[in-house]
Design goal:
This protein is mainly α. The protein is built from two helices and two strands; from the N terminus they run ββαα. Strands 1-2 form a two-stranded antiparallel sheet.
Length: 57
């Protein structure tokens, strides 16, 4: 069976890439948010707070 001049399995492979892309993006986001929750950002936040009055141009 041919769909748009391609074999059916090739057509389904091209059709499924958005689902795979979005699913992998969600999984990566969840993993990175869990990693971010584990990391202590207190030193980074102190550096940001100390620079607020400097006024970069």
């Amino acid at each position: 069976m041919m769909l748009f001049g391609m074999p059916m399995w090739t057509f389904l492979a091209f059709l499924s890439w958005p689902v795979i892309f979005i699913t992998s993006a969600i999984v990566i986001y969840i993993v990175m948010s869990k990693q971010d929750a584990l990391i202590d950002d207190s030193e980074f936040e102190k550096g940001i707070k100390s620079r607020k009055g400097e006024g970069h141009s």
